[in-house]
Amino acid sequence: MGNELRRQDANAQRPLTRVAAAVILRDDGGVLLAQRPAGKPYAGYWEFPGGKLEPGETPRHALDRELREELGLDVVRAAPWFIQRHDYPHADVELNFFRVFAWRGEPVGHDGQAFAWQVPGTIDVAPLLPANTRVLAALTLPVLYGITCADDAGEAAFLVGAERAFAQGLRLAVVREKTWPVARLESFAAAMLALASAHGARLLLNGDEALARRLGFAGVHWTAQRLAAATSRPDAMMVAASLHTREELAKASRLGLDFGMLGPVRVTPTHGDTAPLGFDGFAALIDRAELPVFALGGLTMGDLGVAIEHGAHGVALRRAAWSAT
């Protein structure tokens, strides 16, 4: 017991190694992974390229410098994404992940490292560094998260729009009809699940995980109140949550949730009495978040670029999701 406590104390006193990591994204969906060269810890393991912050550097400055030095790439457009913390035997590491959307040059391994373009969901290089697990899962998330509003539009009209939206590329959505009795919700859910399945889309249920399992949803979306009461996440299903505070962000991360949804960024008809965050307020609130977060509230697909620039994974839309292409 004494030796174990001394080891824990030594780990607690280790300096934090801060790293900028690049998720370099090609237009075809491929991402670049690099293999750690001989002589470094975890030699032969695959990771996202990047490197340590130098004294006085911001993560973004380190990202630009490391990609230039390591791969000969000049970053043109990149956006902060989220942070991962991992306690390796050799170091306590904080990885600041960026998505890199545009760059100049072709990657060349200046340190002699191998690299490979991989498709998220079908990555076949191994072994991968364990700190990348959540990032690899997040790469399979679309940038648009649809939220149903069938109570507003009417069920029949909404299902027509939903079929069109799935056909045009919507691949992730949540059934959120909070005032409906279970029988009505089950009927609507069956229709939505059939449409989603026909187009390879994933559906979550806003509410109870037991009901989500019984009806065949891919996952559950928790309210902030349900998140506050949770002590663990359900297994074998996606789990997301509505978030409003840093404390809720931290708890969602501790429980290993797949993503969060935070807002309102702008004034909305359903939350007209809630002060909007604006994109700067949204960015400040999710700064140093440890899971991907969708921006919510009064947005359209036209806001996707600015949302990503402010650290969002993507945008969550109600009415606009079902008319967006």
**Assembly annotation:** single chain
Total strands: the figure is: 15
Q: Encode the helix/strand succession as letters.
A: HEEEEHEEEHEHHEHEHEHEHEHEHE
Shape: elongated
Instruction: List the uncertain runs.
Output: 1-11
Strand order of the largest sheet: 8-9-10-11-12-13-14-15
| N-C termini distance | 59 Å
Please tell me about this protein's structure.
- This protein has 325 residues and is α/β, with parallel strands linked by helices.
- 31% of the residues lie in helices and 26% in strands.
- The protein is built from eleven helices and 15 strands.
- It has helices spanning 2-13, 59-71, 133-138, 150-153, 155-167, 182-198, 209-215, 224-229, 246-254, 278-286, 304-309, and strands at 16-24, 31-35, 46-47, 50-52, 74-87, 92-104, 115-118, 144-147, 172-175, 202-206, 219-222, 238-243, 259-262, 293-296, 314-317.
- The strands form three sheets. Strands 8-9-10-11-12-13-14-15 form an eight-stranded parallel β-barrel. Strands 4-1-6-5 form a four-stranded mixed sheet, with helices on one face.
- Helix 5 packs parallel to helix 6 (182-198).
- The longest helix has 17 residues, at 182-198.
- The protein starts with a helix and ends in an 8-residue tail after the last strand.
- The model is unreliable at 1-11 (pLDDT under 50).
